[in-house]
Design goal:
The protein has 245 residues and is mainly alpha-helical. Helix content is 69%, strand content 0%.
């Protein structure tokens, strides 16, 4: 385990007062990947070779645009378009007269060279690939720390739980990351933390709704002022970092 590379950011995520420390980890990695993509690296040949080939997903091209480096993004999208046009033009030859069957196959999901290429391109993203490589290592680190670091284990148990997606991810990854007996204990603890905190946020959301009723206008907000944002994080993994209270 490379402590300096992996354990520090994982510990920091679990120290953060957030509804899902795994979301916090992902957000940190994502921000780093976006900064890298629009930093000086976008002029390097090896980086541009990859961005030209795989492009960006809908989510991350929008986030890159929000970063404000319009020239850098334009340069990457232009050379990506050059590569895409070249590939499509080559593959369109299979659609010309005399090879009609390649376009109009019998009803199936087989597609053709053009649609296969574009479908593959739609699922590829330079930013996603950089995130996934690091994120997988961070998840492995969560299991490693839980098994050997008593301070982290206590921090894990004191956390505010996880969003739906990352609770599911931990359950899926657990059997391969831990021994059977240790995994059983992890699943029990993780499940209790998840459900207890989903219920807590649900109750906060219920009180948030009640506050719109005139009968509760003068009642205190309790912990419900940001219940909507926290509920969105639990349900849909939309990162939200609440202010310290």
């Amino acid at each position: 385990m490379k402590e300096q590379l992996y354990t520090i950011p994982v510990n920091e995520a679990f120290e953060e007062k957030t509804e899902c420390p795994i979301c916090s980890m992902y957000h940190s990695i994502e921000e780093g990947a976006l900064e890298f993509t629009l930093g000086p690296s976008y002029m390097e040949d090896d980086v541009r070779m990859v961005t030209d080939e795989v492009g960006f997903c809908e989510r991350h091209v929008a986030k890159l645009y929000e970063k404000g480096n319009r020239l850098g993004l334009a340069l990457m999208l232009k050379t990506h378009a050059d590569r895409m046009i070249e590939e499509v033009e080559k593959k369109q030859k299979s659609l010309k007269a005399g090879k009609k069957s390649s376009l109009f196959k019998k009803v199936s999901n087989e597609g053709n060279e053009v649609t296969d290429y574009l479908d593959k391109l739609e699922k590829s993203c330079f930013v996603c690939s950089r995130i996934d490589e690091v994120f997988d290592r961070y998840i492995d680190t969560v299991f490693w720390l839980y098994g050997c670091d008593t301070d982290f284990k206590a921090r894990f148990k004191e956390s505010k739980g996880f969003c739906n997606k990352h609770y599911s991810l931990l359950l899926k990854k657990c059997p391969k990351a831990m021994g059977a007996s240790e995994a059983e204990g992890f699943v029990k603890t993780c499940s209790e933390i998840y459900l207890n905190n989903v219920k807590r946020v649900r109750d906060d959301l219920s009180w948030f709704i009640d506050k719109f009723d005139y009968r509760y206008a003068d009642a205190p907000w309790k912990d419900s002022k940001d219940a909507l944002q926290r509920s969105m994080m639990k349900d849909d993994s939309i990162y939200y970092k609440p202010e310290e209270r």
